[in-house]
Amino acid sequence: MSALVEAATVVCLRERSTTGTWEVLLGQSEVKNWLRSTPDTTVIMRYPGEWKFPGGSQDVDDESLQQTAIRELREEFLGIDPTETPMLRWLSTRTTLPVQGKRFRMHNFVALSDENVWLNDVRLVDRVNGRLADKRRAFAHALDDGSFWSMDTAAKEAISPEVHRVQWFPISTAIDLMEPGHRQHVNEFQATEFAAHGVVSRDPMYQTMKTLERVSMLSRDDIVELGQKKTSRV
Fold first, then answer.
1. What proportions of the chain, in percent to the nearest 5, are helix, strand and coil?
2. Pair 47, 35: CB distance under 8 Å
3. Across 96-222, where does the E strand assignment appear?
4. Which of 37, 106, 165, 197 has the greatest number of beta carbons closer than 10 A?
């Protein structure tokens, strides 16, 4: 029987003023999992090079799933101001198919731009991408001088690149990017990394796509009503 792991994500949304439809902030995953790789062995990320929500497994120190979601948001999207306390609303819970003996019960929370002023910062994407680039440069230096491989796990976690870049997408575009069979690669970065590491096919994020399909049919009031009893400031 596969183990069930509790996990949480943050769906960052803003409304397009011209159409009234949603835009979603996604991060593109790196392809190589440097934390699990060795000098002689390459381990590939799950969902390599795919666009995703910030999120991950609940840690023992997380007092709630909302805290898990916020911690992962800050770890993956490095430009988020740590003094900000995101306002999250529960959206949905989905369980993934088992992979390597684990299933993830994903608790999806929404951060609406009218309740989270940091999402309206026009410099947000550039700031996050700048800090992600700084992290990659520090990692590359540690890789070049050989110090990375002698680091303990915590130090490797702190420096290993996980998210390549972030970008706002119209929700219809985001759904199309995740549709199985629609395209060979999501962009040039994924194509180049696949070629470099011998990855032959994509692993589209089906559950993320289904979550976005649901969001695309919801108004702001629908989202507020849906998560009314589970809204939390953490």
1. 35, 25, 40
2. no
3. 102-112, 163-170
4. 106
Distance of CA 38 to the CA centre of its chain: 24
Question: For the segment 7-50, what is each residue's pLDDT rounded down to a tens digit?
Answer: 999 999 999 878 889 999 999 999 999 999 999 999 999 999 99
Q: Kindly report the pTM of this predicted structure.
A: 0.92
Pairing relation of β-strands 102-112 and 3-15? parallel
**Which run of H or of E encompasses 165?**
strand 163-170
Give the helix/strand (H/E) hosting 22. Answer: strand 22-29
Give, in words, the CATH class of 3-226: alpha beta
The pLDDT tens digits of the residues spanning 58-85 come to 999 999 999 999 999 999 998 777 667 8
Q: Which residues pair with 56 in a beta bridge?
A: 8
Phi/psi-derived region of residue 10, left when phi > 0, alpha when psi is between -120 and 50, beta in every other case: beta
- Give Cα 212 to chain centroid, integer Å: 13
Q: Which amino acid is at 29?
A: S
Joined together, the tokens standing for residue 109 give 């929370």
